[in-house]
Amino acid sequence: MKKKKTIIKFLVKFFVAYFVLLGIYSIYLKQTQQKSPVFSCSPITQTVAKHTEKVANFLGYPTVVQQSPDELSMLFFVGDIYAIPIVEGCNSVSIIILFLSFIIAFSGSLKATIIFGLVGTFIIYVINILRILALSKLLYMYPEYQGVLHDLFFPAIIYGTVFILWVIWVNKFSYLKKTK
Q1: C-alpha closest to that of 131 among 79, 84, 169
Q2: pTM
Q3: d(Cα 150, Cα 131) in Å, to the nearest integer?
Q4: CA–CA separation, 16 vs 147, rounded Å?
Q5: What are the DSSP calls for 87-149, one per residue?
């Protein structure tokens, strides 16, 4: 009976947190993205693209990003050659929402939840920028492998990072650990 109650409590907390955070993000996107009179990505997507550009340039990998005139994406150029679009789904916010919903559902102390949430969000954000950078470089060099790289390999990196963070959370900080 206690296991059922724990599972139900987890599911309720997870879905409430997920839909509240997703709702807030959806409102944010509606207020910050625009398709007319010109296309403009949300500020967070622009920031991710600019941070990726700065890291690439710092590493000696000449890149430029600019808003697409035809869609909600930031165009990522390697030198003069277009490499990849950076769209809303590339900015890691939806993955961060999933991550935060999980740690809220498997709660720990308020302090631990806030600190781990912030640290985990930062780690996911940095890994995502490195992922975009590596993907752009590999697609620039090997465009014929776009399907495998974009759809399989690089999602495994970001979701693998989230999974490792979840395991650390459950085993080190959540109240679930204390009840085992």
Answers
A1: 84
A2: 0.92
A3: 10
A4: 34
A5: EGGGSSHHHHHHHHHHHHHT-B-HHHHHHHHHHHHHHHHHHHHHHHHHHHHHHHH-GGGHHHI
Assign 61 to helix, strand or coil. Answer: coil
Give per-residue pLDDT as tens, 146-159. 888 888 888 999 99
Report the candidate in 81, 166, 158, 67 with the shortest Cα–Cα distance to residue 116.
166
Structure tokens at 67: 């808003």
Give pLDDT tens digits for 3-52.
888 889 999 999 999 999 999 999 999 999 998 888 999 999 999 999 99
In this prediction, residue 149 carries a pLDDT of 87
Residue with tokens 């465009």: 143
**Which residues fall within 8 angstroms of residue 146, CB to CB, at 6 or more apart?**
139
Total number of residues shown for the chain: 180
Position 12, amino acid? V
- Give the integer Cα–Cα distance in Å for 154 and 176: 31
Tally Cβ neighbours within 10 Å of residue 18: 17
